[in-house]
Write a structure and sequence with these properties.
alpha/beta; TIM Barrel; eight-stranded parallel beta barrel; 16% strand; binds 2-phosphoglycolic acid
């Protein structure tokens, strides 16, 4: 089954030359794999300043048809005075096809509320971008809310998808990313597939109850490396993984792709 590997470069790498280096390594890897690489789909979400250049590289070489372009964020409005923001129409003109919505760094470090996340999700859908909607609890401590982290996840799911039609929710990829498992969180440890599946079950049930949706596509994200990627990709419920820190380490990322190819084929 074809798996999706989403590279969230965050605010990295420092230079365009390094960004080109990562893509060259992936290109070399794909050319060495020939037909086996067909089992993989890749999405690169570079910092906005590299988007145009990454778009050009993705159209050439072995990356063409296997890799698509993503953005890390989107403005909630399509036009108007919004200092520092980049609109959906601007992204689509650059060839962007996916956009990360509600990443925990935006929610918790930059104060993005559920309401803002919801508006950005609607902006992505309005512009026919595929939203990669990030959901995840900050800790596994009990409460608040009263039902502990499980209720937190239910409430975050409801607030994030509020006011959408079932068809729109069905167009989203949902990335379960527990904040405590993201590599830059102090003391981070990766989740396990078994535990992540329980959380996915909570989100799935909430979406099924609210939207009668049975077939949501889920990704896992949080400290994915070459050591644990195989275990997550082997789980049929995960359509792929969202890779942060390891996606800007070209040696590690190519190892991740190698494992993904073996799991998928
Ligand atoms: P990480 O980041 O792989 O570095 O933990 C994942 C993410 O934040 O999307």
């Amino acid at each position: 089954m074809k798996k999706l590997i989403v590279a969230n470069w965050k605010m990295n790498p420092a230079t365009l030359a390094e960004a080109q280096g990562i893509l060259e390594s992936v290109d070399d890897f794909l050319s060495s794999q020939e037909a086996r690489a067909e089992e993989l789909s890749l999405v690169f979400c570079p910092p906005f300043v590299f988007t145009e250049e990454v778009a050009k590289i993705l159209q050439s070489s072995h990356l063409a048809h296997r890799a698509q372009l993503g953005a890390q964020d989107i403005a909630m409005d399509d036009t108007g005075a919004m200092t520092g923001e980049v609109s959906g129409p601007m992204l689509t003109k650059l060839g962007v096809q996916y956009v990360i919505i509600g990443h925990s760094e935006r929610r918790w470090k930059l104060g993005e509320s559920d309401d803002v996340v919801n508006k950005k999700l609607k902006a992505a859908l309005r512009n026919e971008l595929i939203p990669i909607v990030c959901l995840g609890e900050r800790t596994r401590n009990t409460g608040p809310p009263a039902g502990g982290w499980q209720d937190f996840l239910r409430q975050q799911t409801t607030a994030t998808f509020a006011g959408l039609l079932a068809d729109d929710v069905g167009r989203c990829l949902v990335a379960y990313e527990p904040v405590w498992a993201i590599s830059t969180t102090p003391g981070a440890r990766p989740d396990t597939p078994v535990s992540a599946l329980q959380s996915v079950g909570i989100i799935r049930d909430r979406l099924a109850t609210s939207y009668k949706l049975q077939a949501t596509s889920f990704l896992y994200g949080g400290s994915i490396t070459a050591v644990n990627v195989g275990a997550f990709l082997a789980v049929p419920e995960f359509s792929g993984v969202l890779v942060g820190g390891a996606s800007v380490n070209k040696e590690e990322f190519v190892k991740i792709l190698g494992i993904a190819v073996s799991v998928s084929s």
